[in-house]
Amino acid sequence: TVADLKGMKQGRLRLAVITTAKYFIPRILGPFCRLYPGVNVSLQVTNHEGLLERMADNQDDLYILSRPPQGDDLQVKAFLDNPLVVVAPSNHPLAKESRISLDRLAQEPFILREQGSGTREVAQQLFKDHNLDVEVKLDLGSNEAIKQAIIGGLGLSVLSYHTLTSVGATQELTVLNVEGFPIHRQWHVVYPKGKQLSIVATTFLDYLLQESEHIAQDMQLPKLVTL
Ligand code: PGA
After folding, report:
1. Burial group, residue 129, by CB count within 10 angstroms (0-12, 13-18, 19+)
2. Which residue among 5, 8, 207, 220 is the one 20 to 30 A from 111 at the CA level?
3. pTM (2 decimals)?
């Protein structure tokens, strides 16, 4: 179209992302929208289960999640690390220790995300794989609320490292040095194979794959110590 020839891509981009990506995706939308001022965006943020439902209903152009469903009817591209870490209050006795065992960790009360959360599932699976029972003191439907509850002394949690970005960064939280952590994961961008993507969606997909590393470097995350 004439609009494309002028480099003026127009239209609405519909994205659905899991909660852990909400810290990152808006940062890439800023420069993208400056580059293409004719583009408007609708960004839905939901947990893993909610995202799968949106995908099944074909509600959005692109979906961003950590654990894409199996099956060969999806286009799946990995684009950025999304490690999970154990977060504690800075004044917690374990904060000074290194190589904390999972057994020791499991003696602490835990705050976990709600049912349907991918983060919750990974944390529960890890403890289950090691035959450990953890006390879930609190279920909370928000990463931000969990950070506050950790500060409040209700327990520890397994969270996406990206929840510790400079905005809302606080000296009151720390990442524990636990065996098996960080749990390595990646974000994937996904869409149905048969789907004809709009020009705007294709343009964003290319931009995401090209620029994400670079934009992630500006997030000013705390240094991640690997065991
Ligand atoms: P969620 O995010 O916990 O909000 O479902 C999931 C993930 O990172 O897998």
Report:
1. exposed
2. 220
3. 0.90
